[in-house]
Amino acid sequence: MPLQIYNTLSGKKESFNPVREGQASLYVCGPTVYCDSHLGHAKSYVSFDIILRYLRYCGYKTFYVQNITDVGHLMGDDDDGEDKLLKRASELEQEPMAVAEYFSRRHFDVMDRLEVIRPDISPRATGHIPEQLEAIEQLIKQGLAYESNGSVYYEISKDPKYGELSNRQIDQMQGGARVEVRMEKRHPGDFALWKRAEPGHLMRWRDPFSGWGYPGWHTECVVMSVRYLGDEFDIHGGGMDIKFPHHECEIAQARGLNKPFARNWMHTNMLTIDGQKMSKSSGNFITLFDVFEKFDPMMVRYFIAASHYRSVVDFNESVLSAAEVSLKRLHQTVRNLRERKPDGVRPSGKKFEEFRRRFCQAMDDDFSTPLALAALFDLNREANNLLAEKNPDPEAIADAEHLFSTLGGNVLGIIPESLETRQSEHNMNELMEILVELRANFRNNMDFESADLIRDQLQKIGIVFKDSPEGTIWEIADKN
Predict the structure, then answer these.
(1) Percentage of the chain lying above the pLDDT 70 cut
(2) Given this model, what pLDDT does residue 395 score?
(3) What is the SS3 string spanning the chain?
C-alpha cells in the first residue's frame, strides 16, 4: 500500500504524490518565541519529526522549513490585541529582539534534547518584511485586501472558498466582534495583513500605507513557505489550534496570490494535562524545562510516539512513568543484543522481516505510530526468546539489532546509538538533583558551612551552582 496521509483540507486519507518525484517538501509552523516551549510544542514537533524521519527512511530526499515568529502574533482573535513578543519584552524590560533570540535558543535546546532533527531552514518573520509587503500590495491590487486607517485587511467576503479548511461559514464569524473593530473592518472576520504602528512602537517598518507599521501573523508563513519550497509544495503542518484562523488565512492569501500552495495539510491534535486544556491563566501549564527536571526527554518522546499524531493525548506523571517502564524494556533488549552481537556479523535482512513489514504498513497508514510500536514490542518478545537460546543464531541477533536501531532509532527516534551514554547522563541529572535538594535543605536549616562545602567541592570538578530567586541550577563550567 502506498503512503496514505490524512489531508485536513479534504477530510480524508490520500495517497502521497509529491510535487517532485523522489522528493518531499515540508513546512511546519514554528514557535512564537516569547516564552519557553511547552508540552504542546513537544507533541507537535516530535510528531512531525517522526514524519520527516519516515519519509527519509522511505527514500525521499526531504527539505524541511520551520519558521520562527518573532513579530506579528497578536493577542486575541480580532487583530486588535498587543503583539505577544512586544508585551513580553515590556514585562522583562528588554529589547524585543533580545527576547526573541533568548527564547529561540531555548526552544532549540529542548528540541535537541528530544532528539528532534533541526529544520533545514528556520526563517524569521522579521527577516522577510519586504516579501510580506510585496504580497500585501498584490492582494490590494487584486481587490482582495483594503487599507483602513493605515492598516490593511483581507476581505473574506471576496473569497468564496474562505472557511473550507476549518468548515466555517462567513455568516458564523460575527460573534465577539468589538464595535471599534467593526468600524475599521468591513467585516469582523476580515483579518489583518498589516497594522499601523503608533509613535514609539518598538517593532515597526516603513510601509506605503501609513508610513510605519508591522505585519499581522498570517502573511509570514505564506511568503516564507513559497520563498523556500516553491509555489507548490507537499506538506504544510501545524497544531490543530492554529487550523483557524492562521492556516485558513494562509490558504486564502495563497489563492489570492495564485499560488497552488500545499498539497497536503496535516494537523497534530491537542495535548491536555490531567484532562484539562493547557492554560497559563489557570496554572495548567508545563514547560519542557520543568518536565525535564523529573523525566528523561527520551521518555517524553516515547510518550508522544505512543499515540497517533491526530489523537488527543493526556499528560500526567503516572502515564509518563508507565512510558518509562515500557521504553526501558526496549532499551534493555537492544542493549543485550548489542552485547551479544559478534564482531563482523552483518545483518542479512532475512530474519524478522514480518516485523519490518508490519511496522511500515502501520506508518504507511497515516503514520500510525501506536501500531508501529506494537510491531516493535512483538519483535522485542521474539528477540528475547532468541537471546534465551543456548546458541542463538548470530545472523538473527544482527538482524534484530539492526531493525531496532533502524525502525526504533532512525525512524521513531527512541533508541539512541549509545544507550550507555544516555543512561549515564540521566543518572548524572538525578544525582545533581539530589545534591541541589540536599544543599537547599542545609541552607534552610542555616547550616551554611555544609551548603558551601557541597558547592565548593563540585566547583573543583568543574560543576557550578547558580542561585536565583527562582531556585538553583547547575551547569558544567566552560573550560575556556
Answers:
(1) 91
(2) 93
(3) CCCEEEECCCCEEEECCCCCCCEEEEEECCCECCCCCEHHHHHHHHHHHHHHHHHHHCCCEEEEEECEECCCCECCCCCCCCEHHHHHHHHHCCCHHHHHHHHHHHHHHHHHHCCCCCCCECCEHHHHHHHHHHHHHHHHHCCCEEEECCEEEECHHHCCCCCCCCCCCHHHCCCCCCHHHHHHCCCCCCEEEEEECCCCCCCCEEECCCEEEEECCCCHHHHHHHHHHCCEEEEEEEEHHHHHHHHHHHHHHHHHCCCCEEEEEEEECCEEECCEECECCCCECCEHHHHHCCCCHHHHHHHHHCCCCCCCEEECHHHHHHHHHHHHHHHHHHHHHHHHCCCCCCCCCCCCHHHHHHHHHHHHECCCHHHHHHHHHHHHHHHHHHHHCCCCCHHHHHHHHHHHHHHHHHHCCCCCCCHHHHHHHHHHHHHHHHHHHHHHHHHHCCCHHHHHHHHHHHHHCCEEEEEECCEEEEEECCCC
